[in-house]
Amino acid sequence: MLDSNFINEWLPKQEIKNSFFTAPGKNENRVISEDNKNIHGTKKVISDIESITKKIEEAQIDITTPYPNWVKCGLSLANELGEGGRPYFHRISSMFPRYSQSECDKQYDVSIKENGKGVTIKSFFYMAELAGVDINHEPKAGEIGSDPLLSEEATVSNLGDEPTSGEESAESDTDKQKTTNSEHDALIFDTPPLPDLVFENLPLILRESCNLFRDGLERDIFLVSAISVLSACLPNIEGYYFNKALAPNLYLFITGPAASGKSGMDWARYLGQTIHDQYIEQSKKEREVYDIELDIYSNLPKKQKQKPDRPKEPDRKLFFIPANSSSSALIQILYENDSRGIIWESESDTMAQTAKNEWGVSSDIYRKSFHHEAVSLCRRKEKEYMEVNKPKLSIVMSGTPKQLLSILPEVENGLFSRYLYYAFEDLGGFNSPFESHADQNYPKYFKQKGKEIAELYGQLQNLKQSIIFQLTMEQEKRFTLTFNHMLQKDRLLIGRDFDANVKRLGIILFRVTMILSALRILEDGDLSSPMICSDQDFDTALIIVTTLEKHAIAVFHRMPKNELKGKMSAFYDKLPLQFDRKGYLKVAGELGINTKMAEYYIAKFIPKLLKHAYNQYTKISI
Fold it and tell me: Are residues 310 and 411 in the same domain?
């Protein structure tokens, strides 16, 4: 709430004459620089402007779009602060993707010359509020809210220059109650499922496996988990992305309520279990041979011990890497395991504790491994140095939203953008644990699929040269067009903090197309190079990744400091492909967004995301 001094100072006289408080004196609390008499403003107003500007910067919100908003921002700041408003104008304008310091200075010079043109500071606060910025603070003694006689309607929403009447009036008590209920009952993750079309066109091993799941949520979770497990099962397949060779490895985080339907993830593990068992058995046999040789060596006389070398301890082979491995243990496992492996963990708390103990180190390894950048380890005591030149690490994890924050506490360090996310709500009832959707022995079935994957793994591992994966020229064009559009859309709806996610979703899409294409080897046995992606697999991968982009956005909005960025993107996502004003106001009402804010959002969507003609709006798609 803003204090009474601010409201008295800036409301027109006819609006405050019936107020419960008295306007301050004309020069009360004025700050006038000795060097520049054009710097105006009460201490309280300057404090409020600074506070709201900081909130705009923290949330990376652009309140200057469309162009008239930018002009009005400059005029309102010039009217209130004179030359002292220029730094604020730059800070606010810098949220615009194509911000130019020189253009900003020119515009503010015009604002100063026109002396604000009668646009008051109320406009600045009004536009900030419409953009979703919380302009209120806790009431203190003497401020609105501390006096029970003071009207609650004296807020910035009522101070705006724009007239309110009829349909555009402030929310009624009923609307406010609906908004409150909507927010109270809001889902943590209101995300779409994977479309049925995805499951119709999958490679046979995935299509048949997905058919065993009746529940759509469980089927989705199995598929994204299976693709991610399989990303670690395809050695010697790589494609070139920005001239750098990429293997298919993916990072996946599944997040939802505790005790919810994540069992599909458990069945996906079976696909890599045979490979893991073979590694364990191989290590066991090598250890037995080593123990025998070491025993023989240890019993040799001293003179004979000098001739033969001491038996070398065999490498420890693992496919599934324990999630609680320290950073040094992880590097050693990768080093001894042909630079590859997968971290699979259904309870992310296991990994969270390790991350808590050595966050900076382990995070650095995961970030580098995603791009196959070298990781190294130096042990001072043992005088040992290990380097994994091209780590091929996959990660599959699940946890609650709170557990996710313990693994990925921030967006800024870059690990957050490397994950593919599946975020969900479990809205179903209690399913019978005694009924099966398919007449099938599930463990036996998935063990058999794991054996098939292990056979493919062996074939690929024995290749003398890697298979090079490629998209067709037409697919490459669609790929680039898709992500150009996605980047523009998400910059407008969310801000530039999500840029890294969009760009790495490009890498993820490339890897998913590679995985789907490689699984066709099980059907046709073709191990030739280059491996060209079919249009069917490209389309399927594109639908999967663009759907899961919405899941990534939902998780992003749950991260610290990102709450303000969710309203506008949620509004856009809920809009149908075609609609009119009545239609978008209905969607806004369902989301608890008032009329003025909905109008503000629609104006921002035009022309990049919406076409508009005669009260008809159409989403721009590629």
Answer: yes
